[in-house]
UniProtKB/TrEMBL annotation:
Name under which the protein is recorded: Uncharacterized protein
Keyword tRNA processing: no
Top-level taxonomic group: Bacteria
Alphabetical keyword list: Membrane, Transmembrane, Transmembrane helix
Transmembrane spans: 6-27, 34-51, 66-84, 89-107, 113-134, 146-177, 189-207, 214-236, 242-258
Keyword Transmembrane helix among UniProt keywords: yes
Length: 259
């Protein structure tokens, strides 16, 4: 493993966990569901910013895109949460904007039609993955998806800070559990963590594109959708945690075999 995976590499995860848990618990105690729901997004931003340090508005490397993306998604989710009382369409609209913005940003932020067409596969792929990760069938869903993504990144051995960024994402998702039901929130509140995980999961595909990297990208989505897919087949009736675990193990086994 590379030099990122040492004790200092786990500090961003602890930072993300502490920030997320503090905000989630504060929102729960103060009876501010919107605040508790944004805890994971705040923890993600804190952990990623701690990892990457000073980030410019025009990042050159793919991992450098993530902290600024997390900040923009948190701001969008906060604005969507504050404006949610004006109509039921506000939260889904904010979530959709965040999903599309994530695809655009990770696709190279194209500014012309020609550049957008060239980046269309990456743009649509990341946006679609972010949309899939919005699903939250249970309180354990987001932490389980983040841990599956972290494990896949570890097995894939992608050079650079991807694993440490994954540790921060897992810490943010776990810390948000302190918010209880108040931390579930709306699609707009779930969007920053979902879109952030999608951007992180897409890093191996965008940077290297090996067969194992595609399974890395599929790992978090498989956890969230395994129960729904298993429910469509009568002979696969099983508890959601079991189906999610089996799906994650399948992706992780594929990453290990193909790396």
């Amino acid at each position: 493993m590379d030099g990122w995976i040492v004790w200092p590499g786990f500090v961003p995860g602890l930072v993300a966990l502490a920030v997320s848990a503090a905000i989630a618990l504060g929102g729960r105690v103060a009876r501010r569901p919107v605040l508790a729901a944004l805890a994971a997004a705040a923890g993600l931003l804190a952990g990623w910013w701690w990892t990457m340090g000073l980030v410019t508005a025009s990042p050159r490397q793919l991992p450098e895109r993530l902290p600024l993306l997390a900040a923009a998604l948190l701001l969008l989710a906060a604005l969507g949460g504050m404006a949610a009382r004006r109509g039921r369409w506000v939260a889904p609209a904010a979530a959709g904007m965040g999903v599309l913005a994530t695809g655009w940003w990770m696709g190279g932020a194209p500014r012309t039609v020609a550049d957008a067409l060239a980046a269309l596969p990456a743009l649509l792929g990341v946006a679609a993955l972010a949309a899939l990760l919005l699903r939250r069938p249970a309180a354990w869903s987001a932490p389980a998806a983040a841990l599956a993504l972290l494990a896949a990144l570890v097995l894939a051995r992608l050079p650079g800070p991807a694993v440490v960024l994954g540790v921060a994402a897992a810490g943010a998702a776990l810390g948000a559990l302190a918010g209880g039901q108040a931390g579930r929130g709306s699609p707009a509140a779930a969007m920053p963590l979902a879109a952030g995980m999608a951007a992180l999961a897409a890093l191996p595909v965008l940077a290297r594109g090996a067969p194992a990297d595609w399974l890395v990208a599929a790992a978090p989505a498989s956890v969230l959708w395994a129960g729904a897919l298993a429910g469509l087949l009568p002979f696969l009736r099983m508890p959601s945690p079991v189906s999610a675990g089996l799906a994650a193990l399948g992706c992780l086994g594929g990453v290990w075999l193909l790396r």
